[in-house]
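Review form for a predicted model. The reviewer records the input and the model, then writes brief findings.
Reviewer: anonymous (R2)
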Amino acid sequence: MTQELVRYSKVLEIIGDILKVQVAAAAGGEVRFGDLAVLEQASGETSLAQVININRDQVSLQIFTGTKGIATDATVTFLGHPMQVTYSPNILGRVFDGTGNPIDGGPDLAVDAKVSIGGPSVNPCERIVPKRMIRTDVPMIDVFNCLVESQKIPIFSVAGEPFNPFLARIGIQADADIVVFGGLGLIFDDYYTFRKSFEDAGVFSRTVMIVNQASDPIVERLLVPDMALAVAERFAVEEGKRVLVLLTDMTAYADALKEVGISMERVPSNRGYMGDLYSQLARRYEKACDYDKGGSVTILTVTTMPGDDVTHPVPDNTGYITEGQFYLHDGVLDPFGSLSRLKQNVIGKVTREDHGQIMNTMVRFYAGARDAEQKQAMAFELSDFDRQLLKFGGLFRRRFMDIDVSLPLEEALDLCWQTLAECFQPQQLLMKQELVDKFFPRDDSAGSEAVAAERAPA
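Model under review:
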C-alpha cells in the first residue's frame, strides 16, 4: 500500500542553498535524514532537495538547484526515500550526473531497477581477508606497492600533477571486471578526457561514469561517492564482479561538506572543516570489501593536498582510514612516500617467488642512490660504489618511477634483475643465493648492445 505524501508550506527561512521548513510535530518516521523532497513554487516550477538536518519539527533541506528565485510561499513534499540510482546491466557504458540522470544521450532507463544510496557498510561476518591482487601494469604499484582487492587507498598529490590521466590509465589497465568512475567537481575538459580515454581504450563497455562537474550544484557532489559505491556493491554482491571504484577528487568532496556545514551555521573544527569529517570519509571508504559469497569492491581515490601539506585535515583524516597511499609528485610515484599495507597478503603468495626480495633490494639501492646524489651535490669524493648507485638511481627513475611506464608484473620483475645486473655484481646484492642463481642474468649478450648507451658515462 502506497503511503500518501504530505505537503508542507510553512517555510521558516532561506539561507544560501538551505531552506528550513516546519513539519507536523507528529510526523514521526515520515521525514528521515537523507530523504528526498520536492519543492514546488507558486509558478509550478519544481526543484529536488535533500534532508540534511532535523531539529524536532524543523527540517533543513539542501536545494539541488539553489534557492535563487524561491519564495517563502513554496510547498515541500517529502518522498519518503533517499536518493536512488539506476542499477541494471544497461548502465554499463553510460554516463550519469550527480542526480543519477543519464547525460550521454543514450536510451531512457526509467524502467530499470533503482537502488537507494548511502546504506550501512558490510557486516564483518560477510568479509574475507584480502588475498587477491589487482594488476595495473604500473611497475611502481605492481612491484613495490601492490593494489589488493577490497583495498581502500588514495593517491596523494597536489594541484597541477597529472593525477587525472594517471587515474584514467589505472582504470583502463586494471584487471577488474567493472570500473565505476565518480568525478567530483570536474571541469568539462577533465570529464571529457576521462570519457575519451575509456572509449579510446575500448573499456567503456565495462565502465559506469557518475560525474559532478564544477558548474553543477554542489549538493550533487556529496551524492556522487554514495551513488558510485551503491552501484559497485550491487555488481559485487549480486553478480560476483570484481569492481574497481575510482573517485576524484575527495578534497573537493570535503570542501563541499564544509560549504554545506557553514550554510547550516555549524561550528567548524580544524581549518574550517566540520568535526565529523573523519566519519563522513570513513563511511564511504569502508564500503571497500572482499565478499565471502560474492565479488569485491576496491576503492582508489585522488586526494589533493593544498600546499603539499600532508597534515591538512583531508589527507590527515584519510591516512587514518585507508590502507596506505600512493604519493604522486613531480610526475613520478615516490617509493618512500607510497605505502600499501596489504601488499604482504599477495607478494610471494600469488606473485613470483622473487617478488619480495627484488622489491626490498631495489628500494634499498635507490635509497643509497639518493644519499650518493647528495654527496655529489655537496662535492664530496665519490667511491666506486657511489658511482654504481648513481647509475642505478638514474635507471630506476627512468624505468620504474615514471608513471607513463607500462609493464606486466613479470616483465617488470625481469627488468629489475636486468637493472641490477647492469649496475652491480651478484655478491653485492645481499639476496638469497638461490634467487640470485635462478634469476640473475649471467649472460645478456643479446641485450648488451641495447644498454651500452645507458652504461656509457654522460
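Findings: Residues 172 and 203 are 6 Å apart (CA to CA).
Further findings: The first strand starts at residue 7 and ends at 8.
Recommendation: see findings above.
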